[in-house]
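Why should sequence recovery work at all? Because a backbone constrains its sequence more than one might expect. Tight turns favour small or flexible residues, buried strands favour hydrophobic ones, and helices have their own preferences. The token representation captures these environments compactly. In the example below, the structure is given first.
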């Protein structure tokens, strides 16, 4: 069984993430999408549980994909779940430096290899942080995230505006 791990912050999941997850699912028997707290991103919009819920909903059509969340080291999670590969999407050269560094660190720590998939060009501008920013100021993100995520963003920023 070849099990792949697709890790990320997914705060929130975008159409670009879904593109990478569904293409990974074509190449591996099983795919575990791991929602992980990125220690370099102090504040998050959605809790790990909320991100997991949204991911489960938008990947429910992919039978070999499951969602989990985790707060420690990625390679420990991979070992515990029998994942022998990590798969990440690359949008542009600017992603490469950091991704290469993480891939090499993870390889050094555990021997687990990272495979990169190039993002489909229509999603190369897309990031969770930009989606959050656009949604925060009332911009239309309906072409960038699934409807369930757009609704949650609307609700979350609506609550924040209400509390302001
Ligand atoms: O979507 P992101 O924020 O770019 O994903 C980065 C993530 C969460 C995959 C990375 O920060 C990570 O693996 N964090 C878990 C802690 C860990 O294992 N750190 C060492 C990475 S070499």
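From this structural description, the recovered sequence reads:
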């Amino acid at each position: 069984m070849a099990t792949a791990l697709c890790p990320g912050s997914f705060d929130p999941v975008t159409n670009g993430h879904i593109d990478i997850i569904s293409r990974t699912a074509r190449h591996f028997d099983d795919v575990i999408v791991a929602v992980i707290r990125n220690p370099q991103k102090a504040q998050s919009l959605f809790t790990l549980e909320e991100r997991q819920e949204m991911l489960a909903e938008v990947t429910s059509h992919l039978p070999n994909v499951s969602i989990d969340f985790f707060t420690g080291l990625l390679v420990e999670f991979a070992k515990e779940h029998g994942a022998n590969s990590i798969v990440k999407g690359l949008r542009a050269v600017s992603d490469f430096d950091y991704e290469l560094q993480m891939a090499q660190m993870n390889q050094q720590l555990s021997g687990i290899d990272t495979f990169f998939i190039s993002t489909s060009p229509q999603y190369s501008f897309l990031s969770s942080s930009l989606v959050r920013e656009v949604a925060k100021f009332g911009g239309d993100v309906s072409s960038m995230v699934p409807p369930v995520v757009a609704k949650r963003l609307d609700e979350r920023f609506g609550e924040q505006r209400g509390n302001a």
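A few observations help interpret the result. The longest helix spans residues 93-110.
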